[in-house]
């Protein structure tokens, strides 16, 4: 018999099941907003986690290739991170200090600047913005507008920069952007997308046309684009479908902006701290942006966001950008431990090596599955674009996106003990964001389970076997190979 909830007009699951995973999921569905996302497609109630392994309330274990949307560079509860947090807690240090100087903050800033491109670190300034990456994007845009005295912004198709007003205005998703469409100061430019090239050419030619269009619009007095305050770009588009920017194209964007006095803002919220095979994704192309937007992994699993920028841009007055929770001491301690562990163990190099092997095997898988349209990525930021193999290709050879197939693959993967994320234009790109500490055995297990999920999702009867939670017991232990051991752990 259902019991009455403390929330008026709502019912809970049966009282005897109050602490069960099913009951928790039920109450979440009753109480949380319709905006919840991951909880809909991944009905897991995590109760324990270590490294790449997550255990649900029902006792099932999963290999986590979501990693907090890229936040967990070292995986869940890494010993170095836990020790750093305990040290601060045991020291009696204050946990909430606004923007006051503390030894913990000084250590974090030092560790961060040690990893930055020298040309930026030697003449850089840092602003602690608040808890989330979108706060840092807002700060970067505001900084550029104040420093230049201009209002316009150059952004790109497929971009994702957050959920606050200016960040949303720079985002490529038309539906998500509708709430801030009154901000007409954003000029949208084509981002090089080899598989679905907006110019129909792909490759170097498509990237060159994108660069030419950018320069032409900026230099044409009747092009309709006022001189902007900044250009905002992701070195690898994450939510847009794991689309790496070609190195030559990024260099051209740096040349175009530098020649016209336009600050270049690199959004490294998801790509930073070794994920793409270099410590920062901009290093792959050799460019040095004027502003870097950093969050996710820099907090070592806790909320932290900053921008680092050239000192010449430091034009705002005291209090021009603030935030109550910009002094998160635990996040700074966890972030310092993460930054130093990744650097000391060269985990960015390991991400490049493991990621290259995973890409190679996935491309081999694509040769046997016509529903895989493209495989791409850098390091441990990998995308597999699923397509409708039975449909006719467009004029340039690309097949239509297959969002329903991708959703089935996600559920079949969950049934096999693998947590994956979807993204891209029509949520048809399987995104793999495993921690940098993934072992070789775990990498093979991820690929085995994903291959099985794609095979199962392609069968006509696929999807009819899932229970209401989207996952069923399979009898397969997803951590049998690799266990919870963390690569490079002390």
UniProtKB/TrEMBL annotation:
Pathway: Amine and polyamine biosynthesis; ectoine biosynthesis; L-ectoine from L-aspartate 4-semialdehyde: step 1/3. GO terms for molecular function: diaminobutyrate-2-oxoglutarate transaminase activity; pyridoxal phosphate binding. Residues 456-490 are annotated as: Disordered. The keyword Membrane does not apply. SUPFAM superfamilies: PLP-dependent transferases. InterPro entries: Aminotrans_3, Aminotrans_3_PPA_site, Dat, PyrdxlP-dep_Trfase, PyrdxlP-dep_Trfase_major, PyrdxlP-dep_Trfase_small. Pfam families: Aminotran_3. Its EC number is 2.6.1.76. Keywords: Aminotransferase, Pyridoxal phosphate, Transferase. Its cofactor is pyridoxal 5'-phosphate. Transmembrane segments: none annotated. It is an enzyme of class 2 (transferase). The keyword Transferase applies. PANTHER family: DIAMINOBUTYRATE--2-OXOGLUTARATE AMINOTRANSFERASE (PTHR43552). Belongs to the class-III pyridoxal-phosphate-dependent aminotransferase family. This is Diaminobutyrate--2-oxoglutarate transaminase.
